[in-house]
Write a structure and sequence with these properties.
Helix content: over 70%
Distance between the termini: 58 Å
Structural class: mainly alpha
Largest sheet: none
Radius of gyration: 18 Å
Number of helices: 5
Shape: flat
Length: 102
């Protein structure tokens, strides 16, 4: 009986927001730290700085939403398809180091 329950638990996909609480808390702390650090250096209009910070956040959120919804009900396959997912993924992946160089 216990073996069957553990097999069922392993085969059920995770909920959309499972395990996300800690990540969101740490992300908010990191963003607050970045904002406080930037104001410490007294720079004006840190648009490029914030773009550099938010591109990885957007990329990770995109991957998280796509993969969780794909696992739960194949939403990516039914809507945008895997090819479009890959194109957006690699554009965001390319932008990550590019924004660091800017």
């Amino acid at each position: 009986m216990a073996v069957n329950q553990s097999i069922e638990q392993k085969t059920n996909p995770p909920a959309l927001y499972k395990g996300l609480t800690v990540h969101l808390i740490l992300l908010v702390i990191l963003l607050l730290f970045c904002g406080i650090s930037w104001s410490y250096f007294e720079q004006d209009l840190p648009a490029l700085f914030w773009i550099t910070i938010f591109i990885p956040v957007i990329h990770q959120a995109y991957v998280w939403i796509c993969w969780r919804t794909e696992i739960l009900n194949k939403s990516v396959s039914k809507t945008i398809g895997f090819n479009l997912y890959l194109k957006v993924f690699f554009v965001l992946l390319f932008l990550r180091p590019l924004t660091l160089l800017a």
